[in-house]
Amino acid sequence: QVQLQESGPGLVKPSQTLSLNCTVSGDSITTNYYYWNWIRQPPGNELEWIGYITYSGSTYYNPSLKSRTSISRDTSKNQITLQLSSVTPEDTAVYYCATKFTSVQAMGIPRDGMDYWGKGTLVTVSS
Using an 8 Å Cβ cutoff, are 23 and 77 in contact? Predict the structure, then answer.
């Protein structure tokens, strides 16, 4: 069974870059056909898909966040990293790492959901 654990600062100042790690255990992030996603949920709002990196290292981002988002991986640590630049208080949310095992994942959260989720980590953007 795959387990995901998010980690990173709980407080980020406006205009700075939010950086979170997702450490994966139970399988390699390079194993076919895992899609490693970042998803967030602002207080009182619905889940929002941020983007994913595939088992082969390809990345796809939510068009509304693409200009500020970077998802990368460290295969030696079996870790996925999210960076979101120029943050504002509107980026305050619980950030989740989640994975889907599938031949192809379209952009967005699949209708049948993700296979595994991390517990999530709250990031507050405030001065």
Answer: yes
